[in-house]
Specification:
The chain is an alpha+beta fold. The chain has 17 helices and twelve strands. Helix 6 (about 95-110) crosses helix 17. The chain is globular, with a radius of gyration of 21 Å. The structure holds protoporphyrin IX containing FE. Protoporphyrin IX containing FE binds near residues 69, 70, 305, 306 and 371. This is Cytochrome P450.
């Protein structure tokens, strides 16, 4: 457990390297099975998912997301999924492209001054600001960037607080008035207030008629026909807000880093963008003609999957790959370690977008899973990939990013995979801009 707390990424990678694709480990009082073997992962996510519920490690997520689509199971989950699904269909998501490019324009403007002076900027918070705008405008019909100053620290705090590590401050009852509990409550209140404000605006007729919020306000309980209560609506909004913007912001950060760190990658991308777009703003129609952009994003999500691991809890005894899985034990599926398995990936530590070109064999199913898999696969994967592709294209058209000399960038596993200590990049105007 102490290594899990201080170096979770090193631990999961070592466990796979030393013991293989199915590993049982004791994390403090918990028995946890780490799965990186594609067959074992398929068993849990696709073949026998009813036996693998959210489990104890997801409980921490409820602190900031309530009981929403990410943290519930069974009928509770199903009703949320059915309600949310239409908003995430590819065609619907693609209609949001102009909102995405509009938000990127705002970021381009924000970076105009530092770029004119070739300054170094820690890009992480700005990319979170961008994805907060995209998420809230597309799904809520409201721009939550106006509250970014209070929301950003709340989100940052939640990323640590949601992971159960057995720290005393987490284990004490909620009513014990520690400083930690006071901070936690303050940040929870900030998030709740922001979501309640989104609802209030809709109720006042100030929202978007076709938004997810409108659908939630009109939803009824399947068994009673009663409207959803305020807490259930708020949980759903918090879930989408938290699961949607932070992950995508991380994906963007790592992709920009990959481009900044490798002049060869940047040159190839610039040349593709130049020949397909000239100086035009990218749109959905352009994407099929930008294969390198797609490969680059896929490779970035392989090497730095924003959700580096996700858990499950076993309901009943089971067997996976010849190993007994006791009821009540936990499972951990870490894309970060699966994506570095040398049995699947050549030189896994290298950033090579070409491995995703059609001429190469596709990786086996469940050996590449940045968005999870089975019925609980990420509902936002179309939105996330569209946002990352359009953003990376536009930012590369306008700016040239480089890693300042002597800067070492290392990932750290909070709920999402973040660059430890931020991501400082030098921003300059692209020569053609
Ligand atoms: C690069 C960005 C993203 C990554 C890497 C990512 C990753 C994931 C993963 C791995 C899961 C599965 C978790 C599990 O099975 O336990 C998941 C689920 C989920 N994601 Fe994402 N996600 C991203 C973006 C988004 C966006 C944009 C949204 C919404 C706006 C979103 C909303 C959700 C929700 C609601 C779930 C729960 C789905 C369910 O349980 O049915 N995610 N995500």
């Amino acid at each position: 457990m102490s290594r899990f707390k201080s170096d979770s990424l090193g631990l999961i990678t070592d466990l796979r390297r030393r013991y293989g694709g199915i590993v049982r480990v004791k994390l403090g009082p918990y028995v946890v099975h780490q799965l990186t073997d594609p067959g074992a992962i398929k068993h849990v996510l696709q073949d026998n998912p009813d036996n693998y519920r959210r489990g104890r490690f997801y409980q921490g997520f409820s602190l900031f997301m309530g009981r929403g689509m990410l943290t519930t199971d069974g009928a509770e989950w199903k009703k949320r999924k059915q309600l949310g699904q239409p908003f995430f269909q590819r065609a619907r998501v693609e209609q949001a492209a102009p909102i995405i490019t509009g938000c990127v324009e705002d970021l381009v403007e924000r970076w105009a001054k530092p770029a004119a002076n070739g300054e170094v900027v820690d890009v992480v918070d700005d990319l979170m600001w961008l994805s907060m705008g995209v998420l809230s405008r597309t799904l809520f019909g409201v721009d939550l960037r106006e509250r970014a100053e209070e929301l950003t620290p709340a989100v940052r705090f939640s990323l640590k607080a949601m992971i159960i590590t057995g720290k005393v401050e987490q284990m004490l009852p909620r009513w014990v008035p520690t400083r930690y509990q006071r901070t936690l409550k303050r940040h929870q209140a900030t998030l709740n207030a922001a979501m309640d404000d989104v609802v209030a605006r809709h109720l006042a007729g100030d929202g978007e008629p076709g938004s997810l919020v409108t659908a939630l306000l009109a939803a009824t309980e399947p068994d009673t026909g009663e409207p959803w209560d305020a807490r259930a609506i708020r949980a759903e909004l918090k879930t989408h807000f938290m699961a949607g913007h932070e992950t995508t912001g991380c994906g963007l950060a790592w992709t920009l880093h990959a481009i900044a760190a490798d002049p060869g990658v940047r040159a190839k991308l610039e040349s593709e963008l130049d020949s397909v777009l000239g100086g035009d703003t990218p749109a959905v129609e352009h994407l099929p003609r930008l294969p390198y952009l797609r490969q680059l994003v896929e490779e970035s999500l392989r090497l730095h999957p924003p959700i580096w691991a996700f858990p499950r809890g076993a309901v009943e005894d089971d067997e996976i790959g010849g190993y007994h899985i006791p009821a009540g034990s936990s499972l951990l599926i870490p894309p970060y370690a699966a994506h570095r398995d040398p049995d699947t990936w050549d030189s896994p530590e290298e950033f090579r977008p070409e491995r995703f070109c059609p001429a190469h064999a596709n990786p086996a199913r469940y050996s590449y899973l940045p968005f999870g898999g089975g019925a609980r696969r990420c509902i936002g994967h179309h939105l996330a990939t569209l946002e990352i592709q359009l953003t990376v294209a536009m930012l590369t058209q306008r700016y040239r990013f480089t890693v300042p000399q002597g800067t070492g960038i290392h990932p750290v596993g909070l709920v999402s995979l973040r660059p430890a200590g931020g991501l400082p990049l030098r921003i300059e105007r692209a020569t053609k801009a």
